[in-house]
Each structure stands twice: as C-alpha cells, then as structure tokens.
C-alpha cells in the first residue's frame, strides 16, 4: 500500500488549489467549508501556496460582526503552463496562466504519412515554440508542459509503451522531446488528461466519485474517485473500450471480439452507419471526423438514417455505461471528447434512455449523466494540470531540501 | 467531495491496526515501514489504540546497537466482535477476538418457506445468542455485530433496500434486529464484507488496488482501492453481476439480458450444465449447492462434461474479468465465495487462460489472479471488521466529547 501521508498532503493541496481556482478570490473560511478540511490544514496549505508564488493576497472581505477575512486569489503572474494534445490528425498546444485560463493556442496538422516519432516530436516542438512566442511570455516563466498521447504510458520513465493508432512500441517520447522542448515534461494519455480536466475544471469538481467516458477514435473511461485520478498500478486504468459488450461479436482492432470500442468508437459508429445504409451520403470513407460531423448535422435535421445510427450507437453505449453505473455507483458520468461533443444532446438523450433500461435502480437513481461542460480542449487543459502538479511537487522538494540544508 | 482530514485519519488508523493484526507483536518502527506513514503518525495512532484498550504493550526487542524497541500486540482480551452471514440457505454467526481469530461459530438453517423478515430476524438472534453463550464470553464485552445480507443496503438507516433473492423491499432490518440483538449493529452486503475481509486479512492486505470477485448465487466485484473499500455514492458499488457480457443474451433474474451473473452465478452454471447435458447426473434440480459440489468433484476426476462446463464458465468469467483488469488495472484479482472455493484450481486455471486471451498486455502483466486465501467464512470475518470499525469510530467520538467537556 503506497498511499502515504505525503500523498494525502499532496491530494489535499490539489483539492484546495482547485477550489481556489474555482472561487478566486476566496477566503480560508470558505475553502475550509468547500473542502471539508480543517481551518488549520487550509491555512497551512494556503501559506505554502502563497510562499510558492502560486497565490496572492488580494484584500479583505467583511464577515458579519467578526474580523475582516483575508482574501486570496490565484497569482496569474506566477508562471505559465503548457498542455499538448497529440491526436490522430493534429498536434495542439495551449498555454495557460495559473488560473488555467488559455493565453494562446497553436496547432500543427499531422499528415497520414508523417507519424514517426521524430516527425511528431518536431511538430510538438514547433507548436510549443509558437504558443510561447504567440503569448509573448518569457520562456523562463513556463513552469512545465504536460504531453498527452493516446496509448499506454509509463509516467515514471516517460516512455510511450504502446500507441495502437500509430503502432508505436516503447518509444522514449520524453527523452526525444527533452532535446527540443526546454521545460519540465510530464507524459500521460488523453483519457487521464480529460479526467484530470473534469476534476480541476469540469463536472467532477467537488464530486465524490465521477466517471469520464471518453468518446473519440478510441474509447475509454477515466475515474475520479474520492477527488483523485485513479491511474491503476501501471497507469493503464480506464481501458474500458476493450470491455466485452458482445461475446464473440465484431472484431476489434485490439484483436479481440465484441469490444465496446468496436461499436461506439468513431470507426465503430461509421460501421454502424455502413451496416444500416452502405451507400449513405453521410459516409466519408476513411474520414472519421467528416463522417461524425455529417451525422451530427443530419441528426439535428431529423434525417432518419442518422437518427437510427445515433440511436443504435447510444443503445450500445448505454448498455456499456450501465455496467459502469452498477460497478462503481458514481455521482456523475461525463461524456467527453470530440464524438460526444459532435453528436451532443441526441446522443446524450439516447444514452440516458439506454442506461435507465440496463442499470439497477438504486445506483441509477444516484447517478447523473452529462455532457462535459469544458468549453475548450479538455486534453490540453488536463495535460496542463499535470504540469501544474509537477511544479507543485518540485517546489515542495526544493523547499524540503532547503530546510534540510538549513537555509 | 467528502474525503476530509477525519476520513484520512480513520483510514490511517485502520491501516495501522491491520498491520498490527498481521504482525502482532510488532514495533512502531516496523509499522512505519509497512504502512509508509511517518513514525510520528504511527506513534500517535498506536497511542490512541493503546488508550482504547485495543492494543497492549508486550515487551521490547533489541535493535542493532540502538535503544530497545517497544513491542505492541493486539489486546485479545479487549473485547469481542460478531460477524453474521445471512445467506440463501443459512444464517451463520461467528464470534471473534480483536485479533480477528474465530472463538465460536453457530449456524441456523433457513428453510425455503421461512424467509420473511421476522423469521430471519429470529434466526439471527438465535445464532448470535448461541455464539456468545458458546464462547462463554461476557455479553458486555461484545463491541458490536456486523450483519451481512445479500442486496442493496442503506448503511446509514440500516434499511435493506432490495434483496433480489427473497424479493425483500425496504425492510428496516437493523430496527427489527435491535430489539433482540443487544449490541451496536452494522448492516452491509456480503460483497462489501468479503472485500473488507480481503483488505484486513486476505489477498488485498498491503496492496494498492485489489478487486474481489465474489462468486455465489449472485455475482459481484468489490473494490479495495488505495487501501479503502470503494462503496460508491449510495453504497451499491460492485454490482458487476449485471454488467452486460452478451448483448441480447440470456435473460437474467434482474430483468435484463446477457448479464455476467446469468452465465457464472451458481444458477447460470447449472444452466451451462443443462444446455450441454440435459440429463447429466451432476444436475440436482433446485439445489445449487449440490450441483456445484458435484461439478467440483467430477472436474477433479476428469469427467468430460464437468470439465467442459467449468471451461465454459471460466471462459465467460475470464472475458468479464478481463474487462475489470483493463478498466481498473489492479494489482490483484481475488476469486472469493463458495462457488470459487468449490470449483477451485480448475476454475482458476481456466479464468487465467481466458483473461490472458481478452485483457490488454500492459494491465494484464501487472495483475495477479488468485483464489481467496481466507480459510474461514470471509463474509462473517468482513462483517466483524465493520463492527470493529464501528467500535473505533464510537471510541473516537467518546474521546472527542470528553475533550470538549474538559474531562
């Protein structure tokens, strides 16, 4: 069991910082109420964050009859963070202030023939350089960059163990990047990034237990349990896309049959469409984005083929999500990523219906199902929070070594 | 988010007490190493447990060159705990000392016609009275009783919301029991009890994340994540039996189709046998226990029908467990409850094979799959740990009110 006092202290610090970002400016009293932590704990954590320059004192508010309360806010001048989303067809970088507001954005297109590690590394470096230059910030003030790449990631070593879409195996991505991106780097996958984004800024903030269902080319489920991202023992928790939905069903690209992803990932949805209407004008062979966007527009216009495809997809997705509701009994299920955003309310309505048909009554009645409320790229945002967490961890280590050295 | 400093303190206290029970006698230094907590935290928690009479000082051990280290052990004379397992066909009560050793056991048979709440309450009261009398302990030393009953349980109110096997709805079980069982009572279900048993005494102790797969008449999956039982927001986490394994498959008693439980719960296994060999002598119509036991004996003797049935069952179970491996990336999956114990190694071997076929490589390589190592009824043991946790919580509350009152 590795959950130590230091982990708990770190979790409490994230928890307090999240609430400050949400409420800025706020008082220690309000934070204690919001987090359930004691005033003493909140005061200590706020003191540390002030000393690190992440917060700033911004004045006082009256309290009914009592002493005026000191107000604290995020120190937006305290540094910047970068989040990078390496996706199937693009590399996107965003620069954030410490309040997690987007300051600048840059995107590079990934051409189908240009998906080797050196080519992708060059594109990440270019996007990061553009975003830093574009915001006109001093590079020295960048506290770190979080890099998200689909696949199985070893966070400690910075190695991308396996990226199914591009068939990368054991690529030392952070090692390759460190030559051209001069900031502390943190590697993880978009599933964990999206879940962190919901925890810091979205539907999971302030909830006990949330499940983030990520619908893109691949499909996954991120878990925010007790206010913490559940990563699993080798950082690969969340591979929900390869849960069996139909025993001996459709072949999945993972080699198994009947996986959830084979029915509700973007290529699976294209297959749902092709099986129903092989000659549909909605079908853009070889182009997932165009097909899903065409489906999204057609379903809004009441096109019967599109309505049926979204209903079929929602039926499979809802049956699978009902399993998550029964299994984990979360407060909220968040539908995230581009397929969820594109198919939107019609997908959500179908999913709610199917979940209600399949889930058990008691956990069902405790669970809300929502579309992600995050208006920007949740992957960049989540990746930036990894850089923020890394900066906090480093500051603590520096502070500790100073204390040890007697400074 | 409700994880407060007090929750963390409580979790740390359980963690320390678990390690003391495992290692008794032990030193504070050894506990700090085993738990990853600081010496100061361990010393404080041990001090509290000593004051509560749950531990006792038992001497010193030499430390290489340093001061002799104080040894502490569980105070077996500090009180007793009761665990009650209300099952389909029996009510079993066990009495434990504070080291969680069984001191006495009593069992009442539940006849098929005698499953109303008053009848079951009378049987629980009888079993508890027999176990206390049988051990010759002073009733005043019983610190509490944990009651496990299959179904959906509201712990705060002590209401059994829904028990599918007996079709009980909203039965105020603790209220009914409190008239005839004169101890502090704690209600939960066997899934949570088995998971707690693995955490306190079995394969999940000292592991980061464990999944306990419970195979009986019903089927469930308990989660011990970060050393804590994950209950879900309305205490119904773990309803894995009603995860869809085969879309539009076998009708399940829950009303849905294709649920895991319909293939690998005891009645599902009977159906697997009937489909393969309708006239098999192994089949005891209407008697799950006899059928599963006959299967267990026959598979050990290499009977081809039994081997095929266990293989079919393991194939379904493994496909479903692979989903849990991919989803949660745990360190260990524990097969628990009477069906797992009866079918034993042949089932385990088949499950391991099927999981390896269905799970993704990275999470698979991080996960061990084992049979529960708990030699006694894990439900009674787990229920007793709920009583132990309750006793600790009450003692803390009393200590706090004393401090508040200035005593």
UniProtKB/TrEMBL annotation, chains A, B:
Record organism: Streptomyces ficellus
Chain coiled-coil ranges: none
Pfam families (UniProt xref): ROK
SUPFAM superfamilies registered for this protein in UniProt: Actin-like ATPase domain (SSF53067), Winged helix' DNA-binding domain (SSF46785)
Transmembrane intervals: none
Protein name: ROK family transcriptional regulator
Family assignment from sequence similarity: Belongs to the ROK (NagC/XylR) family.
Gene3D superfamilies hit by this protein: 3.30.420.40, Winged helix-like DNA-binding domain superfamily/Winged helix DNA-binding domain
